[in-house]
Every structure is written in C-alpha cells, then in structure tokens.
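Researcher: Good morning. I'm working through a list of sequences from a screen, and I'd like to move beyond sequence-only analysis. For each chain I'm collecting a predicted structure so we can compare shapes side by side. This is the next one on the list. No need for commentary yet; just the structure.
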Amino acid sequence: MNLDILNMKEVVARAAEQGIHLSEYTVRRAIRSGQLPCRIVGRTYLIAWENVVRWLNCVDGSDTYQGT
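Model: Good morning. Structure tokens for this chain:
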C-alpha cells in the first residue's frame, strides 16, 4: 500500500499543483473540526493525501449545507 503522508505545507503545495487553492488555515480548521483526520507528532501535523482528497470530495457528506 502506497500512502502519501504529508505535512501541512506539503498538503497546501500539492493541492496548489493540482489547481486547488487551500491555505494552511483552512487545512488546520478542517483538522480541528474533525473533518480531516491526521496525526500530530510533536508540532507536526501528518496528513494522508488520501484523506485530503476524501475531504475535498465531501465523501462523508460533512460539508453538505444544512442551513435553513
């Protein structure tokens, strides 16, 4: 199994390479809200690229608008 594990800056850079404009703030907010799973080692956030793709595609429906 080939997992791409990236830190925060690498996630932002890889997204930008693919034409997706994300900021570190947005990624951090998704992590804090529980929408984007990660591991924290020391002060480094380690994020699987597969999880980023799932989050961006709203696979679990967590970003579906629920407002009135």
